[in-house]
Amino acid sequence: MSPTPPTTPAPFTKTPGWLDWYANPSRPAFTLPPGTVDAHCHVFGPGARFPYAPERKYTPCDAGRDELFALRDHLGVSRNVIVQATCHGADNSAMLDAVAASQGRARGVATVRPDVTDAELRRLDDAGVRGIRFNFLKRLVDAAPKDALAALAKRIAPLGWHVVVYFEAADLAELADFFTSLPVPPVVDHMGRPDVTDSPDGPEFTRFLRFVDRGEVWVKVSCPERLSVSGPAALDGERHPYTDVVPFARRVVEEFPESVLWGTDWPHPNLTDHMPDDGLLVDQVPRVAVTAAQQHRLLVANPMRLYWPGEQL
Ligand code: 0GY
Fold it and tell me: What pTM was computed for the model?
C-alpha cells in the first residue's frame, strides 16, 4: 500500500513553499534483497501529538510513523533507521514512538543536549537508539561547541553507539580531525554533500575519500535528489534520474564496500524544487552498487552490523 497523505489538519503552519512527500511512489523495478535497511529516514510529528520544537528552523508537513511504515512495505524495505529531524530539536518522542511501534524493525539516532543524564542515555539505548546526531548545517541548527560534542561522544562510547555527522563538503577540512579524534565512529550523511558539478576525481571529493580512508568512517550513499544538479528530468533510461550523482556514489561503494549504507531520506525535508518518487530512488541502487555482493553489503550486511549487531541475517 502506498502512503496516503494525512487528512487531519496540523496545528502548525508549514514553512511557505514546503513540499509534501510524494504521495503515490511507483513500485521499484529493482527488487531490494530481503533484509534491506533504509538507514536514513525521519518522522515529522504528527504535530498534534508530537509538537515541533520552538527552536526549529522550519515547520514541515506531518509525516508520521504509519506513513513511514507504509512506504517501507511498499518499497520492499525490511527495517528503518529513524534519524531525529532537526524540527523536533532534542525532543526525541516522535522518533522513539516510531521505533517502539516498529516491533524491532527500526532503530533510532537521537539528538541530545550536553546536559543529558546517563539515565536518559540508558533509557534511549533500551528504546533502540544506537547513535546521536551532530549537525553542522547552519541553516538547520545553531552550532554547538566542539568540546561539548566531544564530551557527549565520550559518554556514548560505552554504549557502543556512533555519531551521525551532517556537514557541507567545504567544512570537512576543518572538521576531519575533530571527527577522527572522537572515541566513536562517524557515520557521514549524504556522502558529505559533494558538489556533483565537480569531478569525482577532483580535489574536494578526493579529500572526502581520503578522510573515509582513515578507517572506521561510515558513509551514507543517500540523497541523490538533494545533491543532483541535473535533477529529476534528465533521465538515463525511463526510471533513472539524478545521473550526475551516480559516479560519486559508485566510487564510494567501490572503494569502501564494507562501510557504506543506503537510505531514502523520506520525507525529504527542505527540498524546494521537486519531491522525489521514492520508487525511483530504489531503482538507483543497482547503478551505484552494481554487483549482488555490493548490494547485499550496502543494503543488508553493513547496516545490520552497525544497528543490529549479532542478529542473524
Ligand atoms: C536530511 C537533510 C536535511 C534536513 C534534516 O533533520 C533535518 O532537518 O536532516 C536537509 O535539510 O538537508 O538528512 O534529511
Answer: 0.96
